[in-house]
User: Fold this.
Amino acid sequence: MPDTDRAAAHGTLEARLQQCSPISLDAHLLCAPGELLALVGPSGSGKSTVLRCIAGLHRPEHGYVRSGDITWYDSRHGVDYRPQRRRVGFVFQNYALFPHLSALDNVMITLGHLPPEQKHARAREWLERMHLSGMEQRKPLQLSGGQQQRIAVARALAPEPALLLLDEPFSAVDQVTRRKLQLELARLRQNLRIPIVLVTHDLDEARLLADRMTILHRGVTLQSGAPHELMTRPATAAVARLVELYNVFEGELAQAAAGGMPGRLRWRGHQLEVAHTGAHAAGTKVCWAIAPEFVILHRRDRPSRGERENPIDGTVAECVALGETTNITLHVEGDGEVGLTFGVPTHVARRNNVTRDERVRVSLLSEGIHLMPWEESAARG
Assistant:
Protein backbone atom coordinates (compact mmCIF):
# COMPACT_ATOMS: atom_id res chain seq x y z
CA MET A 1 0.00 0.00 0.00
CA PRO A 2 1.45 3.47 -0.86
CA ASP A 3 2.50 5.61 2.08
CA THR A 4 -0.19 8.22 1.39
CA ASP A 5 -2.87 5.53 1.42
CA ARG A 6 -1.49 4.09 4.65
CA ALA A 7 -1.71 7.54 6.25
CA ALA A 8 -5.32 7.82 5.16
CA ALA A 9 -6.09 4.32 6.46
CA HIS A 10 -4.85 5.31 9.88
CA GLY A 11 -6.57 8.70 9.96
CA THR A 12 -9.42 9.92 12.12
CA LEU A 13 -12.86 10.05 10.54
CA GLU A 14 -14.61 13.38 11.00
CA ALA A 15 -17.97 14.18 9.44
CA ARG A 16 -20.39 17.06 9.83
CA LEU A 17 -23.49 16.62 7.72
CA GLN A 18 -26.53 18.83 7.19
CA GLN A 19 -29.56 18.72 4.94
CA CYS A 20 -33.19 19.77 5.09
CA SER A 21 -34.79 17.33 2.66
CA PRO A 22 -35.78 14.63 2.12
CA ILE A 23 -34.38 13.77 5.57
CA SER A 24 -33.56 16.46 8.11
CA LEU A 25 -29.95 16.00 9.19
CA ASP A 26 -27.59 17.84 11.53
CA ALA A 27 -25.03 15.23 12.52
CA HIS A 28 -21.43 15.39 13.72
CA LEU A 29 -19.24 12.28 14.07
CA LEU A 30 -15.66 11.78 15.17
CA CYS A 31 -14.00 8.34 15.18
CA ALA A 32 -10.30 7.73 15.85
CA PRO A 33 -8.15 4.99 14.27
CA GLY A 34 -8.72 1.66 16.01
CA GLU A 35 -11.87 2.98 17.66
CA LEU A 36 -15.37 1.57 17.27
CA LEU A 37 -18.06 4.23 17.36
CA ALA A 38 -21.66 3.06 17.76
CA LEU A 39 -24.26 5.30 16.14
CA VAL A 40 -27.42 4.73 18.16
CA GLY A 41 -30.96 6.02 17.84
CA PRO A 42 -34.55 4.96 17.17
CA SER A 43 -35.77 3.85 13.75
CA GLY A 44 -35.99 6.77 11.36
CA SER A 45 -33.39 8.87 13.18
CA GLY A 46 -31.09 9.00 10.14
CA LYS A 47 -28.41 6.50 11.18
CA SER A 48 -28.20 4.67 7.83
CA THR A 49 -28.38 7.96 5.93
CA VAL A 50 -25.31 9.19 7.82
CA LEU A 51 -23.38 6.08 6.78
CA ARG A 52 -24.43 6.51 3.16
CA CYS A 53 -23.26 10.14 3.25
CA ILE A 54 -19.86 9.07 4.60
CA ALA A 55 -19.50 6.37 1.96
CA GLY A 56 -20.50 8.72 -0.88
CA LEU A 57 -23.73 6.88 -1.66
CA HIS A 58 -25.80 9.91 -0.65
CA ARG A 59 -24.89 13.57 -0.99
CA PRO A 60 -25.86 15.90 1.88
CA GLU A 61 -26.74 19.52 1.17
CA HIS A 62 -24.01 20.93 3.41
CA GLY A 63 -21.04 19.74 5.44
CA TYR A 64 -17.85 17.75 5.08
CA VAL A 65 -16.37 14.27 5.46
CA ARG A 66 -12.67 13.87 6.25
CA SER A 67 -10.48 10.81 6.68
CA GLY A 68 -7.26 11.90 8.33
CA ASP A 69 -5.79 14.70 6.19
CA ILE A 70 -7.90 13.80 3.15
CA THR A 71 -11.21 15.54 2.52
CA TRP A 72 -13.70 13.24 0.82
CA TYR A 73 -16.56 15.73 0.72
CA ASP A 74 -16.79 19.47 1.31
CA SER A 75 -19.85 21.32 0.06
CA ARG A 76 -18.20 24.75 0.46
CA HIS A 77 -15.19 23.90 -1.71
CA GLY A 78 -16.89 21.62 -4.22
CA VAL A 79 -15.05 18.45 -3.15
CA ASP A 80 -16.99 15.21 -3.68
CA TYR A 81 -15.00 12.00 -4.05
CA ARG A 82 -16.76 9.12 -5.76
CA PRO A 83 -17.44 6.11 -3.48
CA GLN A 84 -14.59 4.17 -5.14
CA ARG A 85 -12.07 6.86 -4.17
CA ARG A 86 -13.18 7.00 -0.53
CA ARG A 87 -11.83 3.51 0.22
CA VAL A 88 -14.69 2.59 2.53
CA GLY A 89 -15.57 -0.95 3.56
CA PHE A 90 -19.35 -1.18 3.92
CA VAL A 91 -21.26 -4.10 5.47
CA PHE A 92 -24.98 -3.82 4.79
CA GLN A 93 -27.83 -5.14 6.90
CA ASN A 94 -28.98 -7.50 4.14
CA TYR A 95 -25.38 -8.60 3.24
CA ALA A 96 -25.74 -7.39 -0.42
CA LEU A 97 -23.87 -10.43 -1.76
CA PHE A 98 -24.07 -11.38 -5.44
CA PRO A 99 -26.23 -14.54 -5.41
CA HIS A 100 -24.75 -15.95 -8.65
CA LEU A 101 -21.15 -15.72 -7.39
CA SER A 102 -19.27 -18.05 -5.06
CA ALA A 103 -18.02 -16.89 -1.67
CA LEU A 104 -14.53 -16.52 -3.14
CA ASP A 105 -15.73 -14.52 -6.13
CA ASN A 106 -17.84 -12.26 -3.90
CA VAL A 107 -14.64 -11.23 -2.12
CA MET A 108 -12.44 -11.11 -5.24
CA ILE A 109 -14.81 -8.72 -7.00
CA THR A 110 -13.67 -5.91 -4.69
CA LEU A 111 -9.98 -6.48 -5.52
CA GLY A 112 -9.88 -5.17 -9.08
CA HIS A 113 -6.78 -3.11 -8.29
CA LEU A 114 -4.69 -6.27 -7.73
CA PRO A 115 -3.17 -8.72 -10.24
CA PRO A 116 -5.28 -11.93 -10.67
CA GLU A 117 -2.96 -14.16 -8.61
CA GLN A 118 -2.91 -11.66 -5.73
CA LYS A 119 -6.71 -11.28 -5.82
CA HIS A 120 -7.16 -15.01 -5.39
CA ALA A 121 -4.68 -15.22 -2.50
CA ARG A 122 -6.08 -12.15 -0.72
CA ALA A 123 -9.68 -13.39 -0.96
CA ARG A 124 -8.74 -16.84 0.37
CA GLU A 125 -6.81 -15.22 3.23
CA TRP A 126 -9.82 -13.20 4.34
CA LEU A 127 -12.22 -16.12 4.05
CA GLU A 128 -9.86 -18.10 6.25
CA ARG A 129 -9.70 -15.24 8.78
CA MET A 130 -13.49 -15.28 8.88
CA HIS A 131 -13.50 -19.09 9.49
CA LEU A 132 -14.88 -19.91 6.05
CA SER A 133 -12.15 -22.21 4.76
CA GLY A 134 -13.63 -24.98 2.63
CA MET A 135 -16.64 -22.89 1.64
CA GLU A 136 -14.95 -20.85 -1.08
CA GLN A 137 -17.04 -22.30 -3.92
CA ARG A 138 -20.41 -22.17 -2.20
CA LYS A 139 -22.93 -19.58 -3.30
CA PRO A 140 -24.75 -17.38 -0.77
CA LEU A 141 -27.97 -19.43 -0.80
CA GLN A 142 -25.95 -22.49 0.20
CA LEU A 143 -24.73 -20.75 3.35
CA SER A 144 -26.34 -19.74 6.65
CA GLY A 145 -27.09 -16.14 7.52
CA GLY A 146 -24.07 -15.98 9.81
CA GLN A 147 -21.78 -17.37 7.08
CA GLN A 148 -23.14 -14.86 4.57
CA GLN A 149 -22.43 -12.06 7.01
CA ARG A 150 -18.85 -13.28 7.44
CA ILE A 151 -18.40 -13.15 3.67
CA ALA A 152 -19.74 -9.57 3.70
CA VAL A 153 -17.18 -8.61 6.35
CA ALA A 154 -14.36 -10.35 4.45
CA ARG A 155 -15.39 -8.52 1.27
CA ALA A 156 -15.42 -5.17 3.07
CA LEU A 157 -11.97 -5.64 4.64
CA ALA A 158 -10.07 -7.41 1.86
CA PRO A 159 -9.31 -4.16 -0.07
CA GLU A 160 -7.69 -2.70 3.09
CA PRO A 161 -10.13 0.20 3.47
CA ALA A 162 -9.47 3.44 5.32
CA LEU A 163 -12.75 3.04 7.18
CA LEU A 164 -15.25 0.28 8.01
CA LEU A 165 -18.98 1.03 8.14
CA LEU A 166 -21.39 -1.54 9.61
CA ASP A 167 -25.13 -0.94 9.10
CA GLU A 168 -26.97 -3.11 11.66
CA PRO A 169 -24.87 -6.07 10.48
CA PHE A 170 -26.27 -8.63 12.93
CA SER A 171 -29.97 -7.78 12.91
CA ALA A 172 -30.94 -10.48 10.37
CA VAL A 173 -29.52 -13.46 12.30
CA ASP A 174 -30.74 -15.37 15.33
CA GLN A 175 -29.61 -14.47 18.84
CA VAL A 176 -27.00 -17.25 19.16
CA THR A 177 -25.42 -16.38 15.81
CA ARG A 178 -25.59 -12.71 16.72
CA ARG A 179 -23.50 -13.26 19.85
CA LYS A 180 -20.96 -15.30 17.89
CA LEU A 181 -20.62 -12.58 15.24
CA GLN A 182 -20.27 -9.90 17.91
CA LEU A 183 -17.45 -11.88 19.50
CA GLU A 184 -15.75 -12.31 16.12
CA LEU A 185 -15.97 -8.58 15.47
CA ALA A 186 -14.47 -7.84 18.89
CA ARG A 187 -11.56 -10.19 18.12
CA LEU A 188 -11.13 -8.92 14.58
CA ARG A 189 -10.90 -5.25 15.53
CA GLN A 190 -7.96 -5.92 17.85
CA ASN A 191 -5.82 -5.99 14.71
CA LEU A 192 -7.61 -3.24 12.77
CA ARG A 193 -6.17 0.26 13.05
CA ILE A 194 -8.95 1.98 11.12
CA PRO A 195 -12.06 3.81 12.35
CA ILE A 196 -15.14 1.58 12.60
CA VAL A 197 -18.66 3.02 12.70
CA LEU A 198 -21.43 0.64 13.76
CA VAL A 199 -25.09 1.54 13.31
CA THR A 200 -27.31 -0.28 15.77
CA HIS A 201 -30.59 0.19 17.61
CA ASP A 202 -29.47 -2.34 20.23
CA LEU A 203 -28.09 -0.56 23.30
CA ASP A 204 -26.67 -3.79 24.72
CA GLU A 205 -24.77 -4.36 21.49
CA ALA A 206 -23.39 -0.82 21.58
CA ARG A 207 -22.36 -1.23 25.22
CA LEU A 208 -20.60 -4.53 24.46
CA LEU A 209 -18.71 -3.47 21.35
CA ALA A 210 -18.22 0.29 21.28
CA ASP A 211 -15.50 2.51 22.67
CA ARG A 212 -17.76 5.50 22.15
CA MET A 213 -21.42 6.10 21.31
CA THR A 214 -23.15 8.89 19.44
CA ILE A 215 -26.85 9.39 20.06
CA LEU A 216 -28.80 10.45 16.98
CA HIS A 217 -32.44 11.55 17.19
CA ARG A 218 -34.49 12.93 14.29
CA GLY A 219 -31.26 13.45 12.38
CA VAL A 220 -29.57 15.47 15.12
CA THR A 221 -26.51 14.45 17.14
CA LEU A 222 -27.47 14.86 20.79
CA GLN A 223 -24.43 13.52 22.65
CA SER A 224 -21.24 11.50 22.16
CA GLY A 225 -19.15 9.73 24.77
CA ALA A 226 -18.22 6.43 26.36
CA PRO A 227 -21.21 4.05 26.63
CA HIS A 228 -21.18 4.03 30.43
CA GLU A 229 -21.02 7.84 30.50
CA LEU A 230 -24.03 8.23 28.22
CA MET A 231 -26.05 5.63 30.08
CA THR A 232 -25.39 7.02 33.56
CA ARG A 233 -24.71 10.72 32.88
CA PRO A 234 -26.77 11.79 29.86
CA ALA A 235 -26.57 15.44 28.83
CA THR A 236 -30.34 15.92 28.83
CA ALA A 237 -33.53 14.17 29.86
CA ALA A 238 -34.18 13.47 26.18
CA VAL A 239 -30.91 11.53 25.92
CA ALA A 240 -31.76 9.70 29.14
CA ARG A 241 -34.98 8.44 27.57
CA LEU A 242 -33.19 7.36 24.38
CA VAL A 243 -30.66 5.27 26.34
CA GLU A 244 -33.55 3.76 28.32
CA LEU A 245 -32.65 5.43 31.61
CA TYR A 246 -36.18 5.67 32.92
CA ASN A 247 -35.42 7.03 36.40
CA VAL A 248 -35.72 10.67 35.33
CA PHE A 249 -37.31 13.07 37.80
CA GLU A 250 -37.67 16.77 38.57
CA GLY A 251 -36.32 18.48 41.65
CA GLU A 252 -34.79 21.67 43.01
CA LEU A 253 -31.15 22.13 43.89
CA ALA A 254 -31.11 23.43 47.45
CA GLN A 255 -27.33 23.58 47.79
CA ALA A 256 -24.49 23.18 45.30
CA ALA A 257 -21.59 20.85 46.08
CA ALA A 258 -18.48 22.77 47.12
CA GLY A 259 -15.33 22.39 49.20
CA GLY A 260 -15.64 18.62 49.40
CA MET A 261 -19.18 18.86 50.75
CA PRO A 262 -22.05 17.27 48.80
CA GLY A 263 -24.87 19.24 47.30
CA ARG A 264 -28.50 18.93 48.39
CA LEU A 265 -31.44 18.15 46.13
CA ARG A 266 -35.07 18.66 47.17
CA TRP A 267 -37.28 15.86 45.90
CA ARG A 268 -40.68 14.72 47.19
CA GLY A 269 -40.04 15.91 50.75
CA HIS A 270 -36.49 14.51 50.83
CA GLN A 271 -33.16 16.29 50.91
CA LEU A 272 -30.92 14.06 48.81
CA GLU A 273 -27.14 14.27 48.98
CA VAL A 274 -25.60 14.76 45.54
CA ALA A 275 -21.89 14.19 45.00
CA HIS A 276 -21.63 16.37 41.86
CA THR A 277 -23.84 19.34 40.99
CA GLY A 278 -21.83 20.77 38.07
CA ALA A 279 -22.70 24.31 37.03
CA HIS A 280 -26.25 24.18 38.39
CA ALA A 281 -26.97 27.00 40.83
CA ALA A 282 -28.75 26.62 44.14
CA GLY A 283 -32.46 27.41 43.96
CA THR A 284 -32.88 26.29 40.34
CA LYS A 285 -35.17 23.58 39.03
CA VAL A 286 -33.37 20.61 37.50
CA CYS A 287 -34.08 17.27 35.94
CA TRP A 288 -32.13 14.45 37.52
CA ALA A 289 -31.56 10.81 36.81
CA ILE A 290 -30.18 7.76 38.54
CA ALA A 291 -29.10 4.54 36.83
CA PRO A 292 -30.53 1.33 38.34
CA GLU A 293 -27.12 0.17 39.56
CA PHE A 294 -27.01 3.11 41.99
CA VAL A 295 -30.28 2.07 43.68
CA ILE A 296 -29.46 -0.22 46.61
CA LEU A 297 -32.13 -2.39 48.27
CA HIS A 298 -31.87 -2.51 52.06
CA ARG A 299 -31.58 -6.01 53.45
CA ARG A 300 -33.89 -7.07 56.23
CA ASP A 301 -31.41 -9.33 58.01
CA ARG A 302 -28.43 -6.94 58.27
CA PRO A 303 -27.35 -3.44 57.22
CA SER A 304 -26.53 -3.07 53.54
CA ARG A 305 -24.13 -0.90 51.60
CA GLY A 306 -25.16 2.73 51.62
CA GLU A 307 -28.01 2.22 54.10
CA ARG A 308 -27.51 5.70 55.56
CA GLU A 309 -27.14 7.34 52.16
CA ASN A 310 -30.36 8.89 50.87
CA PRO A 311 -32.80 6.29 52.28
CA ILE A 312 -36.15 6.22 50.46
CA ASP A 313 -39.28 4.29 51.44
CA GLY A 314 -41.83 2.99 48.98
CA THR A 315 -44.25 0.27 47.98
CA VAL A 316 -43.42 -2.38 45.42
CA ALA A 317 -45.70 -1.81 42.42
CA GLU A 318 -44.11 -4.41 40.17
CA CYS A 319 -41.75 -7.30 40.79
CA VAL A 320 -40.82 -9.44 37.78
CA ALA A 321 -38.19 -12.18 37.82
CA LEU A 322 -36.23 -12.48 34.57
CA GLY A 323 -33.87 -15.36 35.21
CA GLU A 324 -31.13 -14.34 37.62
CA THR A 325 -32.35 -10.73 37.85
CA THR A 326 -35.60 -9.41 39.32
CA ASN A 327 -36.82 -6.05 38.01
CA ILE A 328 -38.58 -3.90 40.60
CA THR A 329 -40.67 -0.76 40.26
CA LEU A 330 -41.07 1.10 43.52
CA HIS A 331 -43.81 3.68 44.10
CA VAL A 332 -42.15 6.42 46.14
CA GLU A 333 -44.18 8.25 48.75
CA GLY A 334 -45.16 11.84 48.05
CA ASP A 335 -47.52 13.87 45.90
CA GLY A 336 -48.52 11.99 42.77
CA GLU A 337 -47.42 8.56 41.66
CA VAL A 338 -43.72 8.16 40.86
CA GLY A 339 -42.02 4.89 39.97
CA LEU A 340 -38.37 4.16 40.69
CA THR A 341 -37.02 1.19 38.70
CA PHE A 342 -34.04 -1.00 39.55
CA GLY A 343 -32.94 -4.61 39.58
CA VAL A 344 -31.58 -7.04 42.15
CA PRO A 345 -30.40 -10.65 41.94
CA THR A 346 -33.45 -12.91 42.11
CA HIS A 347 -32.13 -14.72 45.16
CA VAL A 348 -31.83 -11.36 46.96
CA ALA A 349 -35.43 -10.48 46.10
CA ARG A 350 -36.62 -13.82 47.47
CA ARG A 351 -34.52 -13.63 50.62
CA ASN A 352 -35.89 -10.17 51.39
CA ASN A 353 -39.48 -11.15 50.57
CA VAL A 354 -39.77 -8.50 47.86
CA THR A 355 -43.26 -8.97 46.46
CA ARG A 356 -45.99 -6.74 45.06
CA ASP A 357 -47.48 -4.28 47.60
CA GLU A 358 -44.61 -4.97 50.04
CA ARG A 359 -43.03 -1.91 51.68
CA VAL A 360 -39.28 -1.70 51.26
CA ARG A 361 -36.47 0.81 51.69
CA VAL A 362 -33.74 1.65 49.21
CA SER A 363 -30.77 4.00 49.15
CA LEU A 364 -29.95 6.32 46.25
CA LEU A 365 -26.16 6.54 46.11
CA SER A 366 -25.11 10.17 45.87
CA GLU A 367 -22.40 9.36 43.32
CA GLY A 368 -25.07 8.09 40.92
CA ILE A 369 -27.44 11.07 41.13
CA HIS A 370 -26.92 13.01 37.92
CA LEU A 371 -28.29 16.52 37.40
CA MET A 372 -29.46 17.80 34.00
CA PRO A 373 -30.98 21.05 32.73
CA TRP A 374 -34.64 21.57 33.45
CA GLU A 375 -36.98 20.52 30.63
CA GLU A 376 -40.70 21.08 30.89
CA SER A 377 -42.62 17.78 30.91
CA ALA A 378 -39.35 15.86 30.50
CA ALA A 379 -39.32 14.37 33.97
CA ARG A 380 -41.60 12.93 36.60
CA GLY A 381 -42.25 14.26 40.10
